[in-house]
């Protein structure tokens, strides 16, 4: 054993030309194989530790950004807010929540009659400009609908990254937000911040069923997804899952048509739209009718449909003929059974 240890101690793990450490090289000696196995275990452990550390870092960043924004929003009041010139406010593309027409009208009516209870949150970005962190719809209504030039706001002192994280993550976790908007924010967290899907899931604590419902939208045809983007309130994640399943089964065109109709017609329900997207059952073929003739006179018509043999006797004497022949048919069937 001491000789084995002595020989192993001579192996330099950092030496590039060491045979046992070369990729694809199989160690021939027992000490070499033992060293190679140990080295692989160590590398795997190092990777696992690094992955855990990265996940913890991501979770910490996300939670800190969200906590900072939530604290700012909860502790803010109109009394402590500052008047901000609306023409200095800059909207980050994709950050604003898409409101339904009724939601937009209700918010407009509320802002027109009442003072702003929750000031917007903005981040100074230099040159006199201010990035909107929270409150894009309120700013749009003040500017476009009410013709106001100023709005109350609370300055955000965090970094651009933390502002983006806080805004997107707070939307993702908002219970009242439509599932499509949550999906859009989920994608933005990935693309804008560079975090992986696993990072976001770990930090959010969302249930697997909730995540599946949100991500169902990515399985929809692109044309259908564009229609949903205009009216995210019209379709939930559960319906999106069913539509996606129908599209993957070869009914993409019907799904696109149904989703467009759902987004354009307020009276149309998700249940009815799903029925529109489902393939229609083929109509059963008309049964072939065979006529039994006695000379030139028709005795009866025979037909078969769904396992039922139909015998129809025409004319005034049809009922009597049916009574007579049903006994004959029964007798014939019994004779055939006995013969078998």
Describe the structure.
A hairpin with a 2-residue loop joins strand 7 and strand 8. The strands form 2 sheets. Strands 1-5-3-4-2 form a 5-stranded mixed β-sheet. A 3-stranded antiparallel β-sheet has the order 6-7-8, with no helix packed on it. The N terminus is likely disordered. It starts with a helix and ends with a helix. By secondary structure, it is of the alpha/beta class. Helix content is 56%, strand content 13%.
Write the layout of secondary structure elements.
Layout: H1 2-9, H2 30-75, E1 82-85, E2 89-90, H3 101-113, E3 120-126, E4 129-134, H4 136-145, E5 150-155, H5 160-173, H6 179-193, H7 197-204, H8 208-215, H9 222-230, H10 237-264, H11 270-277, E6 290-294, E7 297-305, E8 308-312, H12 318-339
Parallel strand pairs: 2-4, 3-5
Antiparallel strand pairs: 1-5, 3-4, 6-7, 7-8
Helix pairs in contact: 2-5, 2-7, 3-4, 5-6, 8-10, 9-10, 10-11
């Amino acid at each position: 054993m001491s000789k084995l240890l002595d020989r192993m101690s001579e192996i330099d793990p950092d030496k590039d030309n060491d045979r046992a450490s070369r990729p694809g090289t199989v160690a021939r000696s027992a000490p070499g194989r033992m060293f190679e196995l140990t080295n692989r275990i160590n590398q795997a452990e190092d990777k696992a530790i690094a992955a855990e550390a990265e996940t913890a870092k991501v979770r910490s960043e996300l939670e800190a950004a969200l906590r900072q924004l939530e604290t700012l929003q909860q502790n803010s009041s109109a009394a402590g807010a500052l008047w901000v010139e609306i023409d200095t406010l800059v909207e980050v593309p994709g950050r604003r929540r898409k409101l339904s027409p009724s939601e937009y009208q209700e918010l407009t009516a509320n802002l027109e009659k009442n003072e702003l209870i929750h000031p917007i949150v903005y981040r100074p970005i230099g040159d006199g400009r201010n990035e909107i962190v929270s409150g894009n719809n309120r700013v749009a209504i003040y500017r476009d609908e009410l013709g106001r030039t100023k709005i109350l706001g609370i300055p955000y002192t965090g970094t651009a990254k933390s502002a983006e994280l806080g805004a997107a993550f707070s939307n993702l976790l908002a219970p009242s937000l439509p599932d499509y908007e949550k999906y859009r924010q989920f994608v933005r967290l990935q693309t804008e911040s560079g975090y992986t899907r696993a990072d976001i899931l770990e930090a959010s604590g969302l249930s697997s069923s909730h995540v599946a419902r949100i991500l169902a939208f990515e399985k929809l045809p692109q044309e259908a997804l564009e229609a949903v983007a205009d009216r995210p309130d019209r379709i939930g994640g559960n319906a999106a899952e069913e539509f996606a399943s129908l599209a993957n089964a070869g009914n993409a065109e019907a799904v696109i048509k149904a989703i467009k109709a759902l987004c354009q017609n307020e009276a149309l329900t998700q249940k009815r739209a799903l029925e529109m997207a489902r393939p229609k059952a083929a109509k059963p073929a008309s049964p072939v009718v065979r006529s039994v003739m006695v000379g030139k006179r028709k005795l009866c018509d025979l037909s078969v449909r769904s396992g039922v043999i139909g015998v129809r006797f025409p004319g005034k004497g049809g009922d009597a003929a049916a009574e007579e022949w049903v006994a004959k048919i029964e007798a014939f069937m019994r004779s055939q059974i006995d013969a078998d």
